[in-house]
Amino acid sequence: GKALSSEGQQGAGGVLLDRSPAMYISYGWPVVLETTTAEGPSTSDSKAKDLDDSEEVAWVCSVGKATAIGKQNEVQVWTRTKQGRVRVGRFRAKDDDVMVEGGFRYAAWEPKQRALVVCTSGGVVYVLSLSEDARRDATGGSCPGSRFPAVDVGVRARFDCSGVLPTALLVDEKTILLGCADGALVSYNWDGYQKSKLSLLPPGEDLDAHEPWLNNQSVQTLQYCRSRRTLLILLKNGMCALYMFSSDGLRLKSSSSSFCWVLAPRSETITAASLSPESHTLALGTQCGAVHLYAIGNDLSQHKLRTLSLAEWGHTGQSSGVVESVRWTADGRAMAIVWEKAGLSVWTASGCRLMYHLEGHTGQKKEATAAAAGRRAVCWSPEGLQLVASSRRDPSRVLLFSFARAALNSSPTRSGTNQSSLLSVPSACLLGDDRVLCVFGSDVLGDAERPTLHHLPLPQQYSGLNWPARLIAVSARGEDLAVAGERGAALYSHRHRRWRLFGDVNQESAIRCLSLTWVDEVVMLCCQPCSSRPALLEDSSPQGQVQLRFYPKYHLDSTSLLCQKRLNAPPRAMSAQGDRLVVLSGDAGKLEAAVLRLIVEGPLGPSQRPIARVEVLREVCIVTMRPPPVLTSFVPALGGGDAGRGPRSACLVLHADGQLCHLDLETGSERGVLDKVEHFWCEAEPEGGRDGGSGDGSLLWTYGARGISILDVGRVLSLVREGKMARLEVQEPDPELEFDREVYPLGLNPGVNSIVGISQHSANLASSASHGFSPLPKAQPLLSPLLRYLLTQGRQEDAERL
To answer: DSSP letter string over 416-473?
Structure first.
């Protein structure tokens, strides 16, 4: 797909993420959470439009592996696990307190403090501590075969901030930041003492203290981007600003901080805003129903990328309504957009629509109340595999959508061309929270134009303890999978059709995987040691030392551990070719690269005792202002036939902002190749190729805002050597390579000359107002466009051979 011509607040807590490029596709039916209590009215006996305001969902917030749901007088904690979605904790305010302080209106979760900060409409801040009680079952034994530890919700602190009229909330481990009705920002410590105040606008008209969020210059959205130390601020009048801190944390009034206003598109008013935490892309939703994407520079400069809208699906600005909310996933690869009338959609940054859910209206539109003026509450789970949204049809219900994340590799699929290999080795894989969705290259009749999708559930003995699954890696041949959840890892062999787990549960629970990859027949786990089993409210941000552990695929146990190596920081991107491995790590401002070689002496086998070691071939550290890397692949160096410079002395690096660069692992120099890239596939050098290979004959396939493009690797390296970008080499997109804007390409399969993609397929029931999703794989032939490209490049022999 080519590019198409007050939100809840996000805390600053870290989370364990799969940093590799990914896309998200919805599957299954949304789960409905009934949040009505015995004290509240029954929705079955009354219409949703007559529902008591106290039962309307005002906000939703992810708290570890649970979800906090806020109403006017109550905070509920629900589990999201596949074993069941039950309410495990609850805090209910007294009726007298609600009358004086107002209902719970805003909330933010701080994982390091294990605290949920809630602000009422009257300006009173509650700091609620959440703790698990494994001795008590939240269901009281009503769920046979399952046990859910109760969550105790207590008040740690309470302080009155009604004097500043708060309308937005943001927290980190040291500061509680409030946005106010007069457009000011006020910071407090966790004990309720005011630290500083920053006014964004001059004093205006008299403020409405009864409903401060309706004031024209009130702060509607606060979001903090930790990697760039940038605060996003959105006011009700449509004014948007960026504030860059000079150091980590929410410290206002620093002399070296930067501040700038974001100009709204001409004749449009900004109604929603969100900043991607990794790619630093700013999404601005407007009253016309459009979402404008801007790239934010290191100096807070703004460059417009593209506009997303529903115009090609027949929706005008009037029929879709205003953009109510925009939510990026934690890795910044997809965003959820809520329209006033056109429902909920999930998009990639390049303009591919991955999911669309339209829900009926309640009939009458209520006036602005404590339930966010009728806006839907939306939030992503930390791992991005679930989307939680309040129901518009019944405001007391919450919908939970399940998503699968694709495992995108920089190498094409190496499956065979016969029917047996197409049905036994998947062309692409997607990871759900409790399953793997495998896309095979043909149907049972061997038709490569009709790929099929199979659901591969994770074994219950692993997913039951380590839900949700977070990481997935596919071997070079596609026959083996490695999946990691909260602890340990699980391996699956398509050839033997069986899972392999750690034999000792204590060994499994002692490591937490940060990333996975395959090095020939060996699986590499990048992990950190853990001293406890997974908890419901656990802070999953990386902490402590990082190790690389190498296990043979036939046995996961400490006795079969081949070797291990310590790293200075968690890796951002990894790629293996043969026995070589490139590891990229570092945050914004610094990039560290290491080339490792796994040397195994002796044959691998259950009855063998091989000796292995890791050899460091190269290490380089460079200073860069580019965002962190997300994908990499070995390519030849620019030195051509220089002595001692082999084909693995350089790599292609894709950064989070879509910049594809060439990194020389000898000199540490990084040069730009192409921009607006979301994913790429690079054909590896042939095994046994000469040192100093030029890359001639290899092809580079890219996907992004330009669609799918084909480039010659040798030509790209020649342009980089001359200091030029390859943008001019990208020809007009070939019509035969263009997927429609609802299909996302997953894998390149040269064996059958096709590209495999995935799209949304909806299922509806007459008795239900909602609908479910079934991902539909599709194939796009590439033989004709590839022949056309080779002929235009003068490669007659390669075209005839193809």
So the answer is: -SSHHHHHHSEEEEEE-SSEEEEEESS-TT--TTS-EEEEEEPPHHHHHHHPSP-EEE
DSSP state of 736: G
In the structure encoding, which two tokens stand for residue 657, read together?
């902002």
> What does the buried/exposed string (b/e) look like for 413-437 if buried means 16 or more CB atoms within 10 Å of the residue's CB?
bbbeeebebbbbbbbbbbbbbbbbb
Phi and psi based region of residue 155 (left: phi greater than 0; alpha: psi -120 to 50; beta: remaining): beta
Pull the structure tokens for residue 455: 């659901």
The amino acid present at 46, given as its one-letter code, is: S
Give the residue with greater pLDDT, 185 vs 392.
185
Question: Is beta strand 291-296 parallel, antiparallel or unpaired with respect to 302-308?
Answer: antiparallel
| Residue 53 dihedral angles phi and psi, to the nearest 5° | -60, -30
Helices (H) and strands (E) in the chain, counts: 8, 55
Q: Please, which pLDDT band fits residue 637 given cuts at 50, 70 and 90?
A: low
**Does position 107 have pLDDT exceeding 90, yes or no?**
yes
> How many other C-beta atoms can be found within 10 angstroms of the C-beta atom of residue 538?
18
Q: Which long-range contacts (CB under 8 A, 24 or more apart) does 32-38 make?
A: 32/391, 32/397, 32/398, 32/399, 32/400, 32/770, 33/69, 33/78, 33/85, 33/397, 33/398, 33/399, 33/400, 34/396, 34/397, 35/69, 35/71, 35/76, 35/87, 35/396, 35/397, 35/398, 36/396, 37/74
pLDDT tens string 64-83: 899 999 999 999 999 988 77
Nearby residues of 125 by Cβ (< 8 Å), 6 or more positions away: 117, 118, 119, 157, 158, 159, 160, 161, 166, 176, 178, 188, 192
Say what the pLDDT of residue 255 is: 61
- Cβ-Cβ contacts under 8 Å for 536 (sequence gap 6 or more): 64, 65, 66, 79, 88, 132, 149, 151
What is the rounded CA–CA span in Å between residue 482 and residue 413? 16
Exposed / middle / buried, residue 639 (Cβ in 10 Å: 0-12, 13-18, 19+) = middle
* CA atoms within 13 Å, Cβ hemisphere of 691: 6
CA distances from 403 to 51, 392, 703 (A): 31, 21, 22
Q: How many residues does the chain have?
A: 802
Instruction: Report the SS3 class of residue 592.
Output: strand
The CA distance from 718 to 714, in Å, is 6
For the segment 175-186, the average pLDDT, to the nearest whole number, is 93
SS3 130: strand
Mean pLDDT, residues 271-281: 92
490 or 443, higher pLDDT = 490
What value does the mean pLDDT take over residues 482-511?
93
Question: Which pairs with CB-CB distance under 8 Å and at least 24 residues apart come from 128-135?
Answer: 128/75, 128/91, 128/153, 128/154, 128/155, 128/156, 129/153, 129/154, 129/155, 129/156, 130/63, 130/77, 130/89, 130/537, 131/537, 132/535, 132/536, 132/537
Q: Are 636 and 648 contacting, i.e. CB atoms less than 8 angstroms apart? A: no
- pTM equals 0.89
**What is the distance between the alpha carbons of residues 654 and 632, in angstroms, rounded to a whole number?**
6
Three-state helix/strand/coil letters over 22-72: CCEEEEEEEEEEECCCCCCCCHHHCCHHHCCHHHCCCEEEEECCEEEEECC
Residue 719's region, left for phi above 0, alpha for psi from -120 to 50, else beta, is: alpha
The two three-digit tokens of residue 674, written as one number: 């192409």
Q: What confidence tens digit (pLDDT) does each residue in 750-801 have?
A: 777 788 899 888 877 655 666 889 999 998 888 888 888 888 888 888 888 8
